[in-house]
Amino acid sequence: MVRRLNDLVEVAETEREKMEQPLRRAYMSLFKAYAEMGSVKVEAIAATTPPSIEVKVSEKTILGIRIPTLEIASTKIPLNYGLLDTASSFDEAVRNFREIIATLCKVAEIENTIFRLAEELKKTQRLLNALEHLIIPRYQEAIKFISASLEEREREDFVKLKHVKRILERRKEVETVGGTG
């Protein structure tokens, strides 16, 4: 589980690095659009824009842990605004964000998997600690107590057998002495 978690962390870091520059470009374009067009106009156009992707959420199991997966069905929706009404930076921001959205979903899926595996690892570690420090020592003490009790009982039985043997030997002596005389 730890190896799988470490592998996923490496993949997440790589994907985040790939995403950094395109995301930076997208936000810079959006910042320019806000500066050139004003926040009211940018937000009004953004509010009327339909979603450009559809995300289907399903589950997979990794090491017995259910992990949500994202399946992206990208739909190329045409722009719903006129190019004359917007600045080129706005168009560039839209294009940049549409390009990066699939990568963002992939990184989100990987990071969610990392968090779930890490949580399961914590639970497993707590269970191991409980076993190591509480349950196993209790069983070891119980085993020692039972072993000591059995040894004591064995010694008592041995003493009883010796005593019975002596009594039987005396009876035999008495019978042999009484029978011969």
CATH architecture of the domain at 2-127: Orthogonal Bundle
The CATH topology of the domain at 2-127 comes to Helix Hairpins
- Tally of strands: 2
User: Spans of 5+ residues with little confidence (pLDDT < 50)?
Assistant: none
Question: In terms of structural class, how would the helical and strand content be classed?
Answer: mainly alpha
Could you walk me through the main structural features you see in this protein, from its secondary elements to its overall organization?
Helix 1 packs across helix 2 and helix 1 runs antiparallel to helix 3. The model has no long low-confidence stretch (mean pLDDT 86). This protein has a domain at 2-127: Helix Hairpins. It has a two-stranded antiparallel ribbon with strand order 1-2. The chain starts with a helix and ends with a helix. The chain is built from 3 helices and 2 strands; from the N terminus they run H-H-E-E-H. It is mainly alpha-helical and 181 residues long.
